[in-house]
Amino acid sequence: MGEKGSVLVTGATGYIGGRLVPRLLQAGYEVRCLARSARKLAGRPWADDGRVTILEGDVGDEAAVERAAVGCRAAYYLVHSMLAAGSAYAERDRHLAEVFGRSAAAAGVERIIYLGGLGETGPDLSQHLASRREVETALRAGGVPVTVLRAAMIIGAGSASFEILRYLVERLPVMITPRWVSTPCQPIAVGNVLHYLIACLEQGATAGRDLDIGGADVKTYREVMQIMAAALGLRRRVIIPVPVLTPRLSSLWIHLVTPLSKEIARPLAEGLRNPVVCRSDEAQRLMPQRLLTIAEAIEAAVRGHARGEVETSWSDAGPIPGDPDWAGGTVFEDSRAVVVAAPPAVVWTTLCRIGGGHGWYGAKVLWWLRGAIDRLLGGPGLRRGRRDPEHVGYGDALDFWRVVGIDHHRDLRLRAEMRLPGDAELDFHLQPVGDGATRVTQVARFKPRGLAGLAYWTAVLPAHALVFRGMLRGLQREAEAAARQPTRA
């Protein structure tokens, strides 16, 4: 057992939770992770640490939460349901928090720590921030003391806020924006957030308290955008605020320009109208640390992104849909194979680079066009990229695909998350064939939904010869070129 006892972490597949676990281990704690899909955590570098226990279950299941929490001195609640339709995410968040609070109390947990949203209280609070306040109340209803850390924009490589800023600033030298660009905000670096999350365990005075956490300075969103432009080496952006852009229009615009979906962007856009500035420095007095300025936080995130050092990403979180029922009904297949003059280990390494900045090995224009159409239809498109440029793990997002099956050096299975009238998968199977060669079999499957699905498959069938054949041949070329490289001593 960890020298400081056990703590429970929910949301470990998410941006903050995935970074919190290894730092808790470094601080001397044993960690239990409760996740809907244990396999999504299996590939994390810390998953095999003997002080980590990964349990599969839902935070809405009282029995599962209680079992996971028994023996834990504290529990981190890092769960949000922003992807639900309409206002349903707020209702679901409140329900889950009530269940968690009751279960933690029944398990004998001494503390709950919740990362909420910064913002003034009152009737003008956005639905998103008001929901965060309701979660605080619901967690406390179980009777366990709750420490609430209220943060505004969290800046770090891979965070949703960072990605929105980066894409807007990179792509738009002239921006027509809502009036919220003049709203004051106090962003905080992800490293500072993690310090507070761990330090509050050691500081008993934080129990049962609401603490505002922010970075070293306060700026308007307009100023933050100019700081991002400077960090990216770009000219100052021309920003023109207008009164007619509603949260709905703003979220659609964010969806089209950035990797985030409109479902995620909508509550975020609504919250931008509220000033998010710390009302006291109590958190800093109780848990002192050097707070980064906005410029320092953005520069560190830009450096991390440029080096491919993205420990966790906003796209990590979220459920993985269940396997489609391929048995019964119409299932179309496009199967192709090629023998690659390279051993399976080299081919596997090459295969695992697909997506993101490396691309899809062929038909670049067609992939770009499909991604652009998907964005217009409300899907993730190609901008979501990938977290790690070299390695893939179960649950990783690769542009508009997600890894739903992996057997290293043998099989890789991707599920389409693009907007489609049906279910689609793309499978790769590697088989050694002697003399250091590998047969790569690529199978695309599509199960249509109704006439629209049948029409879609018929329409895209001619493009498959270019897209899938080109991808397979491109994979062959790159793997064989890698195999010819001299081995370094």
How are the secondary structure elements laid out?
Elements: E1 6-10, H1 15-26, E2 30-35, H2 39-42, E3 52-56, H3 62-69, E4 72-77, H4 88-107, E5 111-117, H5 127-140, E6 146-151, E7 154-155, H6 160-171, E8 174-177, E9 184-185, E10 188-189, H7 190-202, E11 210-213, E12 219-220, H8 221-231, E13 238-241, H9 247-257, H10 262-271, H11 282-286, H12 294-306, E14 332-340, H13 344-351, H14 364-376, E15 397-398, E16 401-407, E17 411-416, E18 422-434, E19 437-448, H15 450-484
Helix pairs in contact: 1-7, 3-4, 4-5, 6-8, 8-12, 9-10, 13-15
Structure, explained:
There is one protein chain. Helix 5 links the parallel strand 5 and strand 6. With 489 residues, this protein is α/β, with parallel strands linked by helices. The strands form 5 sheets. It has a 7-stranded parallel beta sheet, sandwiched between helices. The radius of gyration is 24 Å and the shape is globular. The two termini are 41 Å apart. The mean pLDDT is 86.
State the main characteristics.
489 residues; alpha/beta; Rossmann fold; Alpha-D-Glucose-1,6-Bisphosphate, Chain A, domain 4; six-stranded antiparallel β-sheet; globular
CATH architecture of the largest domain, please? 3-Layer(aba) Sandwich
Mean pLDDT: 86
CATH-level-4 superfamily name of the largest domain: NAD(P)-binding Rossmann-like Domain
CATH class term of the largest domain: Alpha Beta
Q: Give helix % range.
A: 25-40%
Over all CA atoms, what is the radius of gyration?
A: 24 Å
Which stretches of 5+ consecutive residues score pLDDT under 50?
Answer: none
- Largest beta-sheet details: 7 strands, parallel
What is the number of strand segments?
A: 19
CATH fold-level topology of the largest domain: Rossmann fold
Question: Kindly, what is the distance between the CA atoms of the first and last residues, rounded to a whole number of angstroms?
Answer: 41 Å
Q: Helical region count? A: 15
Shape: globular
Percent of sequence in beta strands: 15-25%
Q: How many structural domains?
A: 2
